Amino acid sequence: MLETYEILVIGLMASFILLIFTGYPIAWVLAGVSFWFVVLALWGAEAMEWDTFMLDRWIRFGVIVDRIWSQMQNNVLVALPNFIFMGLMLEKSGVAERLMQAFTRLFGSLQGGLALAVCAIGILLAASTGIVGASVVRGLGFDPVWFVVVFAVMLQTSFLTPPVGFSLFYLKGVAPPQVSTKDIYLGVVPFVAVQLLVVFIIFEFPDLVLWLPREVYGR
Fold this sequence. Notes:
Layout: H1 4-20, H2 26-48, H3 58-72, H4 79-93, H5 95-107, H6 113-124, H7 144-158, H8 166-174, H9 181-187, H10 189-204, H11 207-217
């Protein structure tokens, strides 16, 4: 039998997923669902004696707000909006598209040349990975399913690689003061190596990616 707080967490996640499809902005959905489930949990703890784990008094909710505020004052996290701005400028200026075309010409003679181009750009410019390559995939004769899988793996890798590794900045924001950025960079090296190994396997054995779609959709 699930505890009350576990049921609340499941309800929160299910509500968030369902409300995403209503078309409301995700930021408002996430904030609204979280806030109203906090209100529900506190009301249940006070009026119905629900077991809501630590969230049983409004004063504890105030501690959560203070924690969020302390994170907003972290100077490292100021870099994140700048990376998003960089990605937007790369898209609007056309630099990302021209860079993609240049990398495609550079690796075009190699097997999986387009994927290599996406990997290189995705690792270096994670903020712009959403717009590189998508417009030329079909024109160059690559299987879009295979490309999307490679794209997704490299997008995940970009979250772990400097200089635009968002996850690295998240970790720095919550790590103890004695943990330096260099320590975090060195710590993610094995995980990046595993991600690159997966990409190599996808290059050499594309049927691992394409087998299931072919069986399901008859492609």
